[in-house]
Amino acid sequence: MQYITLNDGVSMPQLGYGVWQVPDAEAYDTVTAALDIGYRHVDTAAAYENERGVGRALRESDVPREEVFLTTKLWNGDHGYDAALRAFDKSLEQLGTDYVDLYLIHWPVPDRDLYIETWRALEKIAADGRARAIGVSNFTADTLDRLLREGTRPPAINQIELHPYFPQKAMREYDRRHGIATEAWSPLGQGGALLNEPLLGRLGEKYGKSPAQVVLRWHLQLGNVVIPKSVTPARIRENFEVFDFELEVSEVEEITALGSDGGRIGPDPAVFNYVG
Ligand SMILES: NC(=O)c1ccc[n+]([C@@H]2O[C@H](COP(=O)([O-])OP(=O)(O)OC[C@H]3O[C@@H](n4cnc5c(N)ncnc54)[C@H](OP(=O)(O)O)[C@@H]3O)[C@@H](O)[C@H]2O)c1
């Protein structure tokens, strides 16, 4: 495993296991499988409605809690200072733990214009030692500019949609300039057409790896934190076996060149105001 050090000194495994769309009833088994394989980083969210299953897997595992980096996120309906504190308490209760390693604002929800108040609540949660690190997800240069101006501490992470079809060059560069780590969501492009790209097949053959492993290696070499999701045990293992080969710089660039401005799969955070 490779670790990165966040701007607040917290160390974080660069590869983790994402659990969006894993039903609560299955999360116990899949997170247990991931921990057995060697993952030490799990990415969930209140909105995924599986914090209970994730928490039970962590509690019942032989792996000590302090060896697992656990992330959860505040949902869009919970913006505002008091609401954020309440949402955090609820997440801790569901997870059955007394702290998380990373707490993120899931989306800025610009129309509600509450993310600065929410950030103050996250700063309080961090000051109280209940989240070792705090950060954001789906923030743009505009929303981050304001957070950096009005907050008292910078976010450690910005978790954004990022994969070879949408490589987010400008946002990665923005994060880097401001000492914020970039974390990639949907790192495999949700397992769609991307994994059939001939370039990835060719590189996979060269290194004896699958297209998914080549994509994950690309992320690691760009410096991204990466959190692939799978409910398939063989794929959970495959996605972990990415530390024993290295792409050439020119190959990293070729993969990045698959991207385009239209490569986004998920919502555009500048206009995503859904709170349901
Ligand atoms: N902050 C946010 O707004 C946000 C948004 C989206 C996601 N996320 C986080 O990012 C994580 C990952 O993103 P994601 O779940 O959207 O997509 P992803 O990890 O890019 O792709 C997951 C899909 O790829 C398939 N897959 C996984 N490994 C594979 C492999 N080795 N070969 C072929 N197919 C493979 C999975 O299938 P099976 O499961 O059937 O094996 C699943 O359908 C989420 O779980 C969540 O933690 C955050």
Strand percent estimate = 15-25%
Would you list the SSEs in sequence order as H and E? EEEHEHEHEHEHEHEHHEHH
Mean pLDDT: 97
User: What is the total number of structural domains?
Assistant: 1
Largest beta-sheet details: 8 strands, parallel
CATH class term: Alpha Beta
Derived structural class: alpha/beta
> Could you name the CATH topology?
TIM Barrel
Task: Return residue spans where pLDDT drops below 50 for at least 5 consecutive residues.
Answer: none
Number of helices: 10
Q: For the largest beta sheet, what order do the strands appear in spatially?
A: 3-4-5-6-7-8-9-10
Structure ligands: NADP nicotinamide-adenine-dinucleotide phosphate
Q: Per the principal axes of the C-alpha atoms, what is the gross shape?
A: globular
| Total beta strand runs | 10
Distance between the termini: 37 Å
CATH architecture tag: Alpha-Beta Barrel
Looking at this structure, what is the CATH superfamily?
NADP-dependent oxidoreductase domain
